[in-house]
Structure formats: C-alpha cells, structure tokens
Amino acid sequence: MSEKEKKDGLNIELSEEIAGGTYSNLAIINHSPSEFIVDFIQMMPGVPKAKVRSRVILTPQHAKRLMKALIDNVNKYEDQFGEIKDIDPNKGIPINFGGPAAQA
Known about the structure:
Distance between the termini: 55 Å
Oligomer: single chain
Largest sheet: 3 strands, antiparallel
C-alpha cells in the first residue's frame, strides 16, 4: 500500500450485485507453485450435482494473508458468540444434508 493510500484510505467500490453476496457451503482449494485457486460451491439437499458459484485465484502471499485474517476473525467471532462446532471428521461431508432422498 502506498503512502497516499495509507493517508487517504483505500477507496473500494462495491456494486449492488456483488453486495448481495453468493451463498457457499463448501470450498475446494487447489494450488500450483504460483497461485491458490478457491472454488466456492453450493450444495443443495437432494440435488446430486453441486455448482461452483465463485472462483477466487490468489497469489501464495495473499492466500497466507487471507488465512491469517480468517483465523483472527474466527477467534474474534468465537470470543463473542462461543465456539463454532465442526462437523465430525469421521462422518465426512453430509451430501444429502440428512434429508430424504430425492424422487421423481
């Protein structure tokens, strides 16, 4: 960040479309020597096909900064609202969300 940006603040534009956000309940991360690729996916109950809703490509340095920022924010969240319970790693990802199987 330049000295001017530090002094004046960073001017970030957020369009109405982007401000609405994109729901994701699964993320898959891949990497190469030069980049990290994060696919944000939406899985729906009873639907056998999940859809990638957004892909974000990061430099390794930015990926590490993002990881540190997420750790910091999760810690702050848990300090305020309590521990976030994780899914039992032995059960894997609940593909059907525990609901009935879809039928046509």
